[in-house]
């Protein structure tokens, strides 16, 4: 992807993207999620497919209440941090969110696993730190 492509994608992401740090469903910690949503057409599909091919993640189709199809791209964790770092020099509106979230992800230590290999709850300190970052990213959104 060229520098021009990255700048274009960053502008697209500033308008249609989302950065979030969310608690996972098993209460074993938080995870980073980066999303892009766009109405389905050939240009949007090609763009999201190129993003998926470069940074991983997945694309899903969603039906709106009016029956239109929207495309949703999502990528999590380390791959999401790499995407944010690649876009960071060109971001404007979501720059601070991206910086905070990518830095948090890059500094995380893998969660502890129990004897069966499954993740177990993180320490209270780690969960509080994760929750504080999640709240900070949310506050940066103005929510």
Describe the protein in words.
- By secondary structure, the protein is an alpha+beta fold.
- The chain has a single domain, classed as Homing endonucleases (Endonuclease I-creI), CATH 3.10.28.
- The chain has helices at 3-16, 42-55, 77-87, 95-107, 124-140; strands spanning 17-23, 30-39, 58-63, 69-76.
- The longest helix is centred in the last third of the chain and has 17 residues, at 124-140.
Largest sheet: 4 strands, antiparallel
DSSP summary: helix tally: 5
Mind telling me the C-alpha Rg? 16 Å
Task: Please name the CATH architecture.
Answer: Roll
* CATH uppermost class: Alpha Beta
**Secondary structure: helix percent:** 40-55%
Secondary structure: number of strands: 4
- Name the strands of the widest sheet in spatial order: 1-2-4-3
Based on secondary structure, the structural category is alpha+beta
Instruction: Fill in the CATH topology.
Output: Endonuclease I-creI
Report the end-to-end length measured between terminal Cα atoms.
33 Å
In CATH, the homologous superfamily goes by the name Homing endonucleases
Q: How many domains in all?
A: 1
Strand-residue proportion: 15-25%
